[in-house]
Amino acid sequence: MNRQYLPWFALGFGCAIAYRLTIYQLESFKRQCEILPEESRETVDKATENALKLDTLVTLSRGVNYNLSRAAIRIIAERALTDTAFPTLLRHAISSTPSTRHTALKTLRFLILGKSKSENYYENDNDHILSKESELILYSQPVFHTLVHACLIALPRKIKDTETYTQRDEETEAYALECLRSLIRQPHQAGSSTSTLIRAINAGVVVYMKRLPSPGYPNIIAAFSDTEYQPTNYFLYDIHNWMLNHDDADDYLEALKKAELYVERPKVIMMGMRGGVGGTFERQVQEFHRTLRERYPTAVSVEEALEFAAAEGMTFENGEAVAGRGAVWQ
Length: 330
Description:
Blueprint: H1 6-33, H2 46-50, H3 54-61, H4 66-80, H5 86-93, H6 98-113, H7 132-138, H8 141-154, H9 170-184, H10 196-203, H11 205-211, H12 220-224, H13 234-244, H14 249-258, E1 268-271, H15 281-295, H16 302-311, E2 315-318
Parallel strand pairs: 1-2
Helix pairs in contact: 3-4, 5-6, 6-9, 8-9, 8-10, 9-13, 15-16
């Protein structure tokens, strides 16, 4: 071979080698970064997982490694929902012993909301510790019965053969109602014939509402209908409002009527400031228009919103003439 072509041949051969090495390295990097499907990963079999002792899992759950801690917590939670453990947990949630009841309800709350309450707690956090299959157990009718029963147990009751009443267990009520609110607010579960609202009604949530004390009002629903009422338990207040706006709200209203708790809400738009704050007439009109826009978002003008309101039989009052109440929709 002519020596003048030797450098070019070496350069071409080197480029070919470099090209092949680059392709190989890129493909190798791609394989390393690839996330395999769940079924293709190497996993620990169920028998090995079940062999882990509870004390070991508790120790791992308190470790500094987030992945190990989360995995241990998930295993513990899944074990709590087994056929042998979960019925026991529900029985403890309605125990006559307050400490046992509180512990069981805290556990239920953790299973339902996904984490214990702390400064870093966010209700809408999707980082849940249960699988979708296990979550379905929490929406079963026995869970609703247990939570409502716990609320009823928490109410003051007369001690047999005495004139003394037990103290109201507000801690039990708070945990049970927070769990119940979270369950009711979830969308209809696939494969279920009844909604969470119907399950709550069947569990007796309206019966619980009827037994609640409501000083100054005929019943708790009448209190909730008063815009100036300050509820002592916002979980129940949220449950009531959520059920009123549920797809099955008619069933809820029918249950309230049967329990003689139904309160007709007047269809009135009042002109004035929100929250009872005074202001100029121009400011009151601005707030009134904002109320219309919130109620009728599809309206292209105030006039069209007023037509929508008239079609629903709404009437209008001046806020200053109604005890200074604001521009709210009752």
